Amino acid sequence: MNPRHLLELILLAAIWGGSFLLMRVSAPELGPVVLITLRTVIGFITLLPFLIHMNKQRQVRQHGWPIFVVGMTNTAIPFVLFAFATLTLSAGLTSVLNSTAPIFTAIIAYLWLKEKLNWYQALGLLLGFIGVLVLFASKGSLSFDSTALALFAALGATLLYGYAACFTKRYLKGVSAIAIAAGSQLFAALVLIPLAIPLWLEMGPYQEISNQTWIATIILGVVCTALAYILYFRLLEQLGPAKAISVTYLIPVFGIFWGMLLLDEQLTLWMVLGAGLILTGVGLTNKKSQSIGKS
After folding, report:
1. SS3 of the chain: helix, strand, coil, percent, to 5
2. 59: Cβ contacts below 8 Å, ≥ 6 apart
3. Per-residue burial over 177-215, b = 16 or more CB atoms within 10 Å of its CB, e = otherwise
């Protein structure tokens, strides 16, 4: 990995880490569904010129159904779940929970795609699970309150990310990354718009949206969705998945940093412990032994 790739990886982590801050700022005013509808619409509009320039729009039509599934499981539903989670959880904690996605990917790949797990990966799954339990324990009670619901929403989102990754590997192999990215944003937007319109009409006459929320939403769509996808898929092509996935380790660092810097969020001992266990688990889950690999 040369210095340019390293800088791009850090930039991508900073962008995606900032997305949780932006959702925490804009979700309370717009609501999760309206916010993510705007995010996907803006994301698709930004990606569309790249799709046309690369002449990949035909692939979106040819692989419409599997791209639609990815749009639901990698964008529409998990984005809404994370936006809902940020109504209660800090940006830093939400970004830590986001890092569990590779763990769910490994579990689903083992159960569905019959990929083997070596002992490093099994230990990683265990540590990641313990890390999640630590974050639940930080609530201070066993009651199913708004915090617990937000934690489950975030984990539900990362579970869907894991499914989408395995689904993409099985059904969209060889399809252009820009076609998947743009197509998934398009289908997510088309599904969310009918849900968002009545919510917007109900909210609009009674609430004036702040400039801060509008700016955060635009940045979410243009930078954290469209441009981040382009940067990620470029790194994926040039470095391969093993190195590109290392962005997972950096996102919580920036998520916590942005939250502390801009929202005065507090870093608790429970969060440090839980994040450490989860990230260690993610590292082991992505580790391959020389003697045992994927089937």
Report:
1. 80, 0, 20
2. 175, 176, 179, 183
3. bbbbbbbbbbbbbbbbeeebeeebeeeeeeeeeeeebee
Which tokens hold the place of 276? 């450490």
Nearest by Cα to 265 from 25, 70, 43, 52: 25
User: What does R_g of the chain's alpha carbons equal in angstroms?
Assistant: 19
Residues 6+ apart with CB under 8 A from 283: 124, 249
Report how far Cα 91 is from the mean position of its chain's Cα atoms. Answer: 13
What's this model's pTM, rounded to 2 decimal places? Answer: 0.90
List pLDDT tens digits, range 15-63. 999 999 999 999 999 999 999 999 999 999 999 999 999 999 999 999 9
In angstroms, the CA 120 to CA 242 distance is: 15
Asked whether the beta carbons of 161 and 78 are under 8 A apart, the reply is yes
Helices 32-53 & 3-30 angle (0-180, nearest 10)? 140
Cα 237 to the chain's mean position, in Å? 19
